[in-house]
Amino acid sequence: MKKKLILFLLLTISTTIHARVIDVDTLIIRFFTWEVVDVPHLITCINYETEVPYKEYVVTDTSAINTINEKIKDLHSTQEQDFCVACKLLCIKNGTISDIICLNKDYIMIDSKVFSCDRSIVNIIDTLINKIPPSKEKFSYKPEKFGAEYCKGKEELNKLLSSYYNKIKKEYKIKGITKFEILCKANKKGYTKTVKVKLYNKDISSTDKHKIENNITEWFKRKIKWKKNNTRMNADWINIYFKSPDDL
């Protein structure tokens, strides 16, 4: 009986973890629609800006920000999962982004954790965007992509890829132009989880092509670590397009 009680208490504590309060002076709301968008892939925190024609609203009213904070404190954590992002909040402190919050009507992601979204937060956002005119100039922020997610930057990743490709080129005696499409998935801490490689070179045999693709896949898993990103979801892919140095 005592063991069951302890287990119940532990489960209760684990589901009542509260979200961290955001310390900001400005809140930028990026909003499209609360309705589910019919797209071929999930709209995430990272791809939101490129997937939907959002409007942007700037909130500097301390009272409104404090009200949202009060609601955030009462949120309860839920099982980590991907969800279709309807709204994105950029939390600004002294002109720089201190936090990014993504949500829809059911879920909200704050500081890498997913919580059940309180409908009152949705109502507050609706009230604000109905009262505030959309901003004519959008805040200069877009998530990094096409290899810029690498922990040391896109240029360094290209150098590493070029160096590794030169070794492969000598080993397989590759001729002509070679192109790669590389898709990676990483966790929030930046560790590579999944890699898909597609090689294009008409002069390479299908057998060697398969071997090279496998080599690059394993190399990425061993060597490449990405920048930490608390908004990264399981559905997010990192896209890399690489041409052999012969064609650069």
Give the uncertain stretches in residue-range form. Answer: 1-16
Distance between the termini: 70 Å
Helix share, percent: 25-40%
Number of strands: 9
- What is the strand content? 15-25%
SSE string: HEHEHEEEEHHEEHE
Number of helices: 6
> How would a textbook summarize the main sheet?
6 strands, antiparallel
Mean pLDDT figure:
88
Radius of gyration: 22 Å
What characteristic shape results from the CA principal axes? elongated
How is the largest sheet built, in terms of strand order? Answer: 2-1-3-4-5-6
- Structural class, judged by helices and strands? alpha+beta
Structure in words:
The structure is a single chain. The chain has six helices and nine strands. The chain is of the alpha+beta class. The strands form two sheets. It has a six-stranded antiparallel sheet. It has a three-stranded antiparallel sheet with strand order 8-7-9, with helices on one face. A hairpin with a 5-residue loop joins strand 7 and strand 8 (192-200). The radius of gyration is 22 Å and the shape is elongated. The N and C termini lie far apart (70 Å).
What's this entry about, in short?
By secondary structure, the chain is α+β, with helices and mostly antiparallel strands.
